[in-house]
Design a protein that fits this description.
This protein has 188 residues and is of the alpha+beta class. The protein folds into 2 domains: 3-66, no CATH class; 74-187, Calycin beta-barrel core domain (Lipocalin, Beta Barrel). It is built from 3 helices and 8 strands. Strands 1-2-3-4-5-6-7-8 form an 8-stranded antiparallel β-barrel.
Length: 188
Amino acid sequence: MDLALKIAIIGALAVIIGAFIKLLGDLASKDDPQSGLIFSIIILIIGIIGAGIFILWIPTPESEGEISIAPTKETSTAFSLAGDWAGTISSDDGSFSTELNLSFATHCRTNEVCGTYDAYQLPCAGTLTLISTEENSFVFLETRTEGEEWCSSWYEHITKVSNNSISYGGSKTTSSEDIQSTGLLSKR
């Protein structure tokens, strides 16, 4: 809280306290108005000083640096798949083989679009939404933006093998037991 705001709050408190004290002073000294005024001024000064001390001790942005705030896991580290990946994937039944390019954003959270895919030989291209994560394994939902109609609603099961390679598995469901195409992609 900046100093101007603190002063404004102190002023507002002073007016409220002053009105209340004036009322108490008037009630306390119906017979002697002079002593009621002195009593009101003393109580008002004490109230302003107390409120001022309280307001001035509220942490400011400058002093908040002293407060330790633990970063969350999502904000403290970059997404482990961040970057561009390329490789060949093929179906388990041998019906197709294609080049696949994946690109992932620096930060990625569940239920957010944080990547793109492009299998231009099929042709299929679109965005990737992170559905689930478990250690170094991730499941993404493809959302087709270009290509054939049958490209939509495909799930990509990605496992980070090393800093330079990931394994790919494609399926119609989020289950890793339903994978129908596989491949190994390298970091570009």
